[in-house]
Amino acid sequence: MTVRLGFLVTALVAVYAVKQISIKSLRPAASTTKYSENGKISSKQDQNEKGEKEHFIDFSSTTVKEHGEKVSGISNAKSSNSKNPLAFHDEKEPILLKYHYPEKNQVKELEGRKVKIERKLLKSYKLKEQESELDELQRHLKIRTAEIEMPNITINSLQEERKKLQEEIEKGVSAMKQLELAKRKIRSQIVTQGDAKADKNVKILEILELKILELKRKNKELQLEKRDLTLKLIVATSKITAKSSVTASEVVSEMEEEVNNLKIANEDLSKQVERIQRSMFSVVEELVYQRWVNVCLRHEIQNHQRFSMGLGPKTQEKVKKVSRVFYSGSQWHFFSSPFQQE
């Protein structure tokens, strides 16, 4: 760009110098040559003419030759007609006429060059404007790309959080499976073992109840985190629709798919929570039932021991039958209780 500007400045200076030369060449010949009383040219005018000639010689090589020939002709005319000034004027006029015509051609050429240079200047200005516009467009593109990448980053972070939540849910499911296995083991142990082991199992079940409560708390926290994630997704979708106008439909479709997937995941999680709650209720019911059975067995053993001391074998069998009927009816009443319905 600096080279172009330097070239343009030199061209303008050359045009200006040519105009000055043409103006000076069109001056009357009488003003350029004044004679003294002895018929000689004054020294100051000689110096001015020499300076102008040197200026013309420096401007271009072609003008140097023409000026040299014409100046030599004028100097010869001066030397030959120094004694007769009238003859010098008569011979000078055709020389000056010859001197003006090539300069006019040069002026025309320089004017044509000037027009070309002006066109080049206009083109260069247009190119500069286009470059500035391109820079602005690139800057806007960078800003838009940065704005579009921000929601993508948020989406990636949300996906990572969703993966973490899924892992935690899987851990909860595995814990529930372990609880079910523990329940089965406890039931088998209650049937086979005595009251002491039943008490131990009751303690284990209490520990499991605490674990279930912790799982419920974790599930609630997960639900709250899900709500936060859905809100973040909604905010991200609103930002994307507001900022990106070119690929808005694609981004919205992707976000809608992700929202639908999250809704499905939320529904699955809610179902799992309901299952956990149901299993917890069943565990509590089983605990109550086992405690009740233990109490009944203890009372039965005590009563059996008391009655066996003072009754005969026939009466003992009758008491056993009555107790069986009573306990069978009580079990049916327990399973049809409102707690079971809840």
Automatic annotation (TrEMBL):
<dbReference type="InterPro" id="IPR040265">
    <property type="entry name" value="CHUP1/IPGA1-like"/>
</dbReference>
<keyword id="KW-0732">Signal</keyword>
<feature type="coiled-coil region">
    <location>
        <begin position="127"/>
        <end position="279"/>
    </location>
</feature>
<keyword id="KW-0175">Coiled coil</keyword>
<protein>
    <recommendedName>
        <fullName>Protein CHUP1, chloroplastic</fullName>
    </recommendedName>
</protein>
<feature type="signal peptide">
    <location>
        <begin position="1"/>
        <end position="17"/>
    </location>
</feature>
<dbReference type="GO" id="GO:0055028">
    <property type="term" value="C:cortical microtubule"/>
</dbReference>
<dbReference type="GO" id="GO:0072699">
    <property type="term" value="P:protein localization to cortical microtubule cytoskeleton"/>
</dbReference>
